[in-house]
Amino acid sequence: MDEAEFQRWVRLLETRTGVTVPPERKPFLETGLRRRMRETGHEAYASYYEDLLDGAKGAVEWAALVDHLTVHETHFFRHPPSLQLIRDEWLPGWLASTEAEQTLHALSVGCSTGEEAYTLAMVLDAALSQMVPARRFGITATDVSQSALAVARTAEYPQDRFDEVPQVYRDTAIERLEGGTLRISERLRKRVGFACVNLLHATRAPLRQLDLIYCQNVLIYFARERRGELLDGLARLLRPNGLMVLGPGEVTGWSHPQLRRTGGRQTLAFVRTSKETQA
Ligand SMILES: C[S@@+](CC[C@H](N)C(=O)[O-])C[C@H]1O[C@@H](n2cnc3c(N)ncnc32)[C@H](O)[C@@H]1O
Question: From residue 144, how far is each of 55, 72, 274 by CA, in Å?
């Protein structure tokens, strides 16, 4: 792929998904494109590009290509310090500042195959079901990749993936199906809903006002100058006292007038302080 062709694909991807492809990722882009081109009978990048822009047919192929060009690596309990921050530092204050009947609404952004959302469900369920009366929660989990979301919705994972789940959660979080397959328990599955939402358009999605936004290992794929804008958009979805948890080091120098930094050096998290109505 020559430089002009590479730049054309970089621009298309960046405009449509926000994901940026630096020069060192060119081989990854070429491999993904060639695989889809073989599967769809295209020999030249140019004819494949034209077909991608071609109405409804192009939109279907675009979804398939995005599945090939996005990185879906994830696992249960991926960043324990962030989970500890939620459970031990933020949640007690949130509970004390809200009415008993208020449901906690959480969002997992770029949830991939679902492990992150189900991890949050395990942590929240363990903490909230102990309250008297028990407090309710719901999690919306979003991603741009339809194939990743399809796996997430099955809630079935190979046995070794569950090795990452601490023993204390296993009895309530995991059920064994006939044939030995392991699945997230119904109790947790019914708390999590998955939706195909492009982070670039997250503020246009019908997301309710949120108490917790969890966004890790997603922003790193976006151009640095865009990350701040995306975070400003997510911050607008947060309710007062709501918490936004990012991956440590994923953004530097970003701040927001209505959010204050919270947690220690192992985490990157912000609490919404203002009681002003959201824009
Ligand atoms: C490396 S995975 C991270 C999964 C999970 N958040 C974690 O930390 O384990 C990145 C995910 O971001 C998703 N993604 C990439 N660009 C996106 C976009 N524009 N909107 C929504 N999701 C996106 C990818 O499809 C992928 O599933």
Answer: 19, 11, 31
